[in-house]
Request: fold
Amino acid sequence: MSDRIIEFDKVVAGYSPSLTILNETTLDARRGEITLLIGPNGAGKSTVLKTLFGILVPRSGEVRFEGRVINGRSQRDLLADGIAFVPQGRNLFGTLSVRHNLELGGVTLPRRDLPARIEEVLDRFPRIRERIDNQASTLSGGEQKQLEVGRALLLHPRVLLIDEPSIGLSPKLVADVMAMLRGLADAGTTVLMVEQNVRTALKYSDRALVLEMGRLALDRPSSDLLADPDLNRLFLGGHAAAASGAAA
Amino acid sequence: MGDLVQLLVSGTATGAIYALAALGFTLLWQAAGVINFAQGEFVMLPAFAMLAGLAFGLPVWLAFLIACVLAAIVLGAGFKQVVVDPLIRHGVIPLVIATLGLAIAVKSTVRAGFSAEAHPLPSPFPTGQLSIAGINVSYADIGTLALAGAIVIGLQAFLNRTVTGRAMQAVAQNTESARVLGIDVRRMVLYVFLINAVLAVVAALLIAPTYLAKFDMGDSIGLKAFFAAIIGGFNQTRGALLGGVLIGVLENLVGFYISPAYKEGVALVLFLGVILLRPEGLLGKAEERKV
Amino acid sequence: MNRITTLFAALGLALAAAPALAQAPIKIAGLVELSGTGATSGTNFDNGVKLAVKEINAAGGILGRRVEYTSGDTQSNPGVAKALAQKAIDDGAYVVMGPVFSGSILVSMEETRRAEVPNFTGGEAAAITQKGNPYIFRTSFTQSSAMPKVARYIKNGIKAKTVDIMWVNNDFGKGGRDMIMKSLEAEGIKVGVDISTDPGQVDFSAAVLRAKQSNGDALFVYTNEEESARALRELRKQGYAKPIVGETVLTSQKVIELAGEAANGAVAHVGLTADAPLPTVRAFDEKFQREYRSKSDHNGLKGYSGMYVVKAITERIGKVDGKAFAAAMKGAKISAKDHPGVLMDVTFDQNGDLDRESFLTKAVNGKQVVVETLPPLGAK
Amino acid sequence: MTATPSLLDVKDIRKAYGAIRAVDGVSFSVRPGEIVGVIGPNGSGKTTLFNSILGQIRPTSGSVEFSGEDITGMSPLELARRGIGRTFQTLQVFGGLSVRDNLIAAAQEFSGTMPGRLFAKPDAGLGQRADEMIELFRLKHVAHLPAGSLSYGQQKLIDIAMAFMAAPRLVLLDEPCAGVNPGLVDQLRELLVQLNRTQGGSFVVIEHNMGFIMRLCPHVICMVEGKVLAEGKPAAVQSNPAVLEAYLGN
Amino acid sequence: MSAPARRAAMLVAIVAALAIGAAFLKRSDVYLLTLTMVYLMATFGLNLTVGYAGQMSLGQAAFFGIGAYVAAIALKAGVPFLAVMPIAAVACFVIGLALGFPALRVQHHYLAFATLGFNVLVYLILRNEEQVTGGTYGISAIPRPTILGVSFEGHLAYFHFTLASLVALGALLWWLLRSPWGRAFAALRDNPIRAESLGVNITAYTLLAFAIGAACAGVGGVYYASLVEFIEPGPFHFSTSLMMLLAVIIGGSGRFYGPVVGTIIIILLPELLRGSSHEALKFMQKWYLVFFGLAVVALMVWLPGGIVSLADRFRRRSTS
Reply:
């Protein structure tokens, strides 16, 4: 059995016919690892996640999950397959209570499983339990992110896609979120993460994929890249290829 | 004092009917981004459906139920499928124009195919009135208020207390986030169209006995529903209620205390004031939807 | 390229749509309100004319020639009425029937006058026959002849000292309101509250409440059919207990049908009614109901009797000639005995106004009942 | 510090949304003819700073001076009249007008009076200038097509060309490279350098494409969390440890 | 022959054909054509507001009415026609400026409702302010113009007079839209924020878009009053505004000849069908509005650019 739980094979995708973001992108993510997607703005990191989660349909190429092509499948199907997605920014329903927000994360589950799953999530996030009957809009930034992740975990996903979880969080909270993701991966969940906070993310992840102009420019173990003195140049000037001629 | 109470009661009853039409209107806008200029015709058609039912000798309640089913199919699912779905990606204005066209088509069909005349529909409530301390309130007003109130409370309960209802709110607040969680957005939107259709049937049942079923009865109801929705706040279901009742009551007060000649004008002035000073409506929040 | 073709296609259609001039039949054109606010009145008027034409043709036509009647919908819009009047004239109409709404007739009668085509109208506004137009003729009373009768009834029948007035703010309602004010004043009756309502108004609660609060002894209601029904329903709803009086519309069949029980007890003066206790009217009523499966209101009788006036006068002058027809109408007397189709003995004056008996009617158990027959104005 | 008077002086601009300080005391100046780059991670307040300078939003405090005149809080229209041009982060062309008309529209309001323009020639005397820009931006083959029907890259070029049509004294460019393919990025940079040389205006450029900005701008400002973290020559900013930390985390 | 020259020649041919052909038409058809042209003045103006400047308006009938009432009152007071026209145009222009103000605050459907509200208010005033407007009785016996001793009383004379005026108004609009103003209007429509950053005074152009459109409707109203010779509030109800908007949109908003096609479909065609005695046409007459309404829906789905844009489609197909 292949370790590659997710594969992109020459995927072309974009937001309009005249605006192509992924340009024959080929990459993969391995089972039980945290795979980090990094690169400059507009390189296509978030687009990879959106394409994987069926929000964008590839114009050509194949997206595979456990070897099966999943191009353009519906979110409901993907969730049933065990893929969950926490998008960038605020994704809570502000006027609903914390409990009801959590509950909506489980709309695809059988009703009777729901209470136990919610308990499970609340055990993991005691802060959320304290605020369970508050309106979601009253939560702090960190609590909101916890709730969003918790909502995704409700489904026991095999693959968790998460887009820039650190935005708006203090360094301490960022570390907390990363540690939590690490724990998930160690327990067997595959994590595919987009993150700007590169150093921190590299510390917690297994493998880093650097995207540039919609293509995979670099694929290295995170620890390796973290130690690379050229990391600075990679982000503040020139091209990734220049940073490491040995890449790929 | 008695006058005032009576004006308030009958104004509230009338306003409650406007509110029903306005409620569906705002739901459609929130969940699907649809401005339905044919909303008035959506009230008129069920009135004629019930009339047809009665002509076949059905009792009122059965005619009402059949009208609900028909409305759900034609004005709910059909409207969504045939008009809204192909047009929604073009933006708000083409859909506004299309619903304008639809309103004309529906109205003219009833006129050409059925009748241009007004028809009475029996009231579901007994005639007569209740007199307490010199204040006369008709059973029709009480019934209207009670039924409209029950519908509104029931709808609120459905939206707030059931998973489906909350999922619908989720779709209205943030469609993308809802989709990511696996909420069946298409189905939730369809539910909104069905609810709108059924609300229209209830409005028809309440309004047709006094206002008479006529092919162009939708003009005035539709207009009042728009005004109510905007005055109250386009993106707030509570806003539609407030707007509807406010118009009903104000019309009565102005018609009585100032001049009936400018009765229509006062709701309008209120509406223009709201549009200019607080476009998000009295209860609304500034629109977050990007156009 | 496309632009031109469209334009010429439209022009071509204009020419094609005009039927060729036919020699044999006598053309009568109807300008009627089949839609818009006047739809009920116009449809009844149209049906009345149609029924008469059908009978006349069945009996051999006028002067042995078949009558061909075509009606067009004015949509209750004067601009359209004017266009239709021109069309009728272009098509060679001998006589034009309608419109019923005063606003429309005031416009369209300019066209028929210019073309010297006799024009029968259902309009009741006084102004119509005050313009010195020799080609305009009424099919019913004017407001100025009917309202004094109403005022007299209010004074003698109800013995009211103060009357409240509820009227619809269109040319019809406004005309009636101005006239009843004058007539009431002449009878020494005071006017309490003066309540204006909108055409197409649906909510009468404030209007009715105002009437209830007034200390008037009776309420005079002068609105169109649907609005009358809504007003009656609201009056009943709020428990209004004083006499409700109207002119023609209030007790019409349509209003009684729409208002249901709420109409009971309302009294109105009617120039023509399908329930008049006269054999000619009974016969008409029966035929009308058989033909259209509904009861005619006064407008149906207007159209029907008007068409028979055309027949009577044409046969009197012995030729199909508009000018001669108009001349013969001055001071014409037509008796129902010789011409049962005119329903009642009728006389026309120099202005085109008519005079005949009229009725006091009351809505009783969902029916219009004649309680009194009033003599013609000229007979007193 | 310098002898040349500056063209644009941004003094201690602050913009707060509730408790969040999007821009928290930013000052910098731009000299005539200078090209200044503004970099910074997402959410560091670059666009808010731009919008505060450009009158789209009103800063909570601070001031902006242009040629010695206080222009704080002026409307975009007033700023445009004073010779300040801009481009937007997202594509902003007049989709229904032809490319040539887009360019003419971009400059026609800067000469004469409104009633005067009603009686002016249809091209407002700008036809030749527009054709020059079309030539420069290599848009000749599409000059008469509606701008909305062109590819993203072409529209981006029109968008930028429009900002320069009226030869403004200062142009603020918000992410000119966003969504532009690599081949075009170099072309774009060359165009901007050429325009700077021939027209002599000053530019302020927000951009994430580091290669582009480092090569284009002799002076770079790095913003983080609403503040200026570092400022100076590209190489110096690039190797500033604080900047590195902001970009890569610690 | 170049394309513009060909187009100009075609236009001259059509106008000449109309001018000459009218003499062979029946009086009622001439009246209808005149009526269509009168409405066309208003829809031409609306096209500027809606199609070129992108401002939603459901209040055009109000200006049509204001123009008509100003004309009726002034003409009856003996003001010469040539003076009445500018008075009505200026009055509508000024009120149109006022109506533009909501547009500075709200857009799209909100603006549609705001302008619709304005129309309802004007309607109420026309109906209730009896001393000035004659209330629901309206104003009758409005004279047709006599200019420099030439009377345009007759139906053909008035038709020719209206045709000439329409051509003049069209030429004026054509010239305006070809001037830099036309480009500024389009910039306002396509992207007001960008336009403002390029020095376009969007406040001024927004107000002007309404005011100029309103002035055109006002002129149309003057011709309407004189044509029908009687006015009352009915024709100036907001439903007329609605039909005018539909005329512009189904014809092709933002296209110069769009309103021509739209107005013919909305005003001329149904009137031609009315009162015809052919069975098929009678059927069409009865169901006309049904087809029309459905056609509007279908058009929005398949041809949002309006009927005139069909020409482009064919052209594109034939070139590709």
